[in-house]
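S1.2 Input.
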Amino acid sequence: MNDQEWMTVSECSEKINVPVETVRRYLRQFSIYLKVKKMHKKYLIHDDSLTVLETIRQLYAEGKNAEEIENILATSGATMTITVQGDDDEWMTVNVAEELKDIKKSLEEQKQFNKQLLEQIQKQNEYINKRLEERDKFLLESLKQSLEKRRMMIEQTAAEKETPKGFFARLFAKKDKKN
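S1.3 Output.
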């Protein structure tokens, strides 16, 4: 925006034919509906705000109070703005409706991202659980086989101890052990 679009309070007062103090009062009461920026100790009002200031003046002339005017401006779709200090310590006026739309869009994008992330985490959990199940089955099967081999070895050892060996069996067994 160029500087020609902005005017001082006194210039605005002359343009809309309203006393300077009245314009300042409007700025204090209805600043969220006006594009205003502060430069040092001066307030600058944007050209777009002239119609809103004239509307406020007209509503007061009709006998409306500040609360009624606030409600009328809010429901009429008048652009709501706020002045905030930016990251570079410079004051800027932002349109509340546009900012809210941007925030809503960002939130929707974040929801979609979160949903995708949650789905991915669920898939990973299913994969991990499946792999753990397979591992457990493999370990149980290996354990069963190991226990079966040990049981068979114990039975074989017990059977060998129970059967008495004859003279020749003991004789040949000793020879085999020596060779």
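S1.4 Remarks. The radius of gyration is 44 Å.
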